[in-house]
């Protein structure tokens, strides 16, 4: 019985979305992107601030060549992630009133995906730096790689799986 009511509710939601006008859909999608951006921006900014402060710690000069390279790469990835995740706000501010909402939504969506990739790489690099201090090198590298794989599964593979499953249900129904 629950499955039938969920299916009926899903159909009603689909019909409601189908009736949604183009400008309403663009406004709703834009509001959703801005909310998602707020979440991602906060995380990347905190992480980036942490990374910047590491260079001013007493033991930073003791880092080996590998750790220094990982640090520099991670800071650059964090800076790039920050820029990409803040870009939708800049686009909106500079292009408001130009009747480009659909283009803004599409572009902001691509920027968000790019920013999440950069954020996953930044987090993984940060984990590698921290674990390199407390664990043997190979174990630290394996664990940082597993974290990166975890992000790939949660942030990309799972949504793709759900998208395929939804497409199968729509073609079957």
Structure description:
88% of the residues lie in helices and 0% in strands. It contains 5 helices and no strands. The protein has helices at 2-19, 22-54, 65-95, 101-134, 137-172. The longest helix is centred in the C-terminal third of the chain and has 36 residues, at 137-172. The two termini are 18 Å apart. 17% of the residues are buried.
What is the topological layout?
Elements: H1 2-19, H2 22-54, H3 65-95, H4 101-134, H5 137-172
Helix pairs in contact: 2-3, 2-4, 3-4, 4-5
Query: Structural class per helix/strand content?
Result: mainly alpha
Mean pLDDT: 85
- Number of strand segments: 0
Distance between the termini: 18 Å
Shape: flat
What is the ordering of alpha helices and beta strands?
Answer: HHHHH
Taking pLDDT < 50 over at least 5 consecutive residues as the criterion, the unreliable ranges are none
In short:
The protein has 173 residues and is mainly α. It contains five helices and no strands.
